[in-house]
Amino acid sequence: MTLKVDMGFESTGAPALIDLEELLATRLLVQGNSGSGKSHLLRRLLERSAGQVQQIIIDPEGDFVTLSGPYGHVAIEAIDYSVAEITHFARRCREHRTSVVLSLEGLEMEGQMRCAAAFLMGLFDAPREHWFPALVVVDEAQIFAPSAGAEVSEEVRRASLGAMTNLMSRGRKRGLAGIIATQRLAKLSKNVAAEASNFLMGRTFLDIDMARAADLLGMERRQAETIRDLARGTFLGLGPAIARRPVMLKIGPVETSARSSSPVLVPLPQAPAPDMREFLLGGLEDTVMPAPVPLPRPQPAAIVLEELARLPLEPVIEEPAEPVDPEPVMASALRAIATDEDAAGKTTSVLFQDFQVRCRMLGLRQAPLDLAGFTRRLAAARAGIFEGLDEAWAPALEAGRKVPDDMLGAFLLIARAASENRPCPSDQELALVYGTSSLGRARRLLSYMEERDIIVARTDLSGRRSITIPALGWTTLPTEA
């Protein structure tokens, strides 16, 4: 089946068409400075192809969630979910062929890159029977595939860049057609950009970006200046899905709009100047300003030196520090963090700094844990386990190796209940350890571990739930779910 997507008009007045079937096989790169109409182009393409092919949008600013109304896209706010849940959500999207918008609004850059990498790998690793054709649109692609080191950890940068490279280089065999948009070609990884065969280049001003755009369009360097003069919403297009020679396209109107829009001039209020002055300065006379603290008069340097010379010198004797047992200190610091209500909303790296400060306050100069070790101890502390990780709880930690780091605390809470022959933790207790108030997320956590044979949950006819950990042979007592 051949479907032409109407994008607007060419400079000759002819309709500007994109071959959707060819686009699925050859991928697309869109470039344009802020205000060039890049997001408008993507919105036009998505609206005109909606209902013909599955659409998956990674949206850093939450601009495309408005497609969920008239076009039925499922909008997901990534900030409400864990990395494991995002991966599971991606697999479900491929299985049910649902058009979705993954909004990354509210996340810091590292969180956006981590989430996008997990989501793309979930799409990529779907079973072969779910390899249906889909457009995967990634806006602001230079964030997720930077050409140089970004201000994030190397692990996150590599994961994000690897996922984007897989999408553009190997995604076609899995039915994934990458459509990436960027403001700066120079900031986008060349390995990712080179995999696209179709190009739509909008207005740009920097020489390095114009030169790269001209190279991709097959234009001579002296012709690159024309890219600077393009009007807003006008793009130069080239590729098997667009045209065999560079053509100029004027993008047509769209039906939906972004939640955020370009700034426009708004008339200033017409209030008389005296009235506004009275409004702005009214009540300031009632404000009590603190009296200034008089500063001491500076003394001449000679007098200060004479006073210092008359002071007796006392020898400083450093007493040898007594060795401190680190285990009780670390257990006390972890107990304080685990019982702190404000700690639930903080990242692991911030809590690690708090842990180091608490250890120093308790007499331990340097905590003998790195960030990875602290992450494991923190998960155990949230489950009520503060000591014996390398001894009594070593089998439980070994059984929990298949569990992601953010789920380890919930797994150890179940293991602790089973070891102490206590009732199974409730959904509310699991949610609290998992760092959420959603009982649904707690249930999805159990489903995730059960699908991977980490636990086996059993609910009897009276509705009481018990959980078995097969690797340990431990089972909790039944309790109300």
TrEMBL record:
One example GO MF annotation: ATP binding
Keyword ATP-binding among UniProt keywords: yes
All residue ranges annotated as the Helicase HerA central domain in the record: 11-73
Superkingdom to which the source organism belongs: Bacteria
Keywords linked to the UniProt accession: ATP-binding, Nucleotide-binding
UniProt xrefs under InterPro entries: ATPase_Atu1862_pred, HerA-like, HerA_central, P-loop_NTPase
Protein name: ATP-binding protein
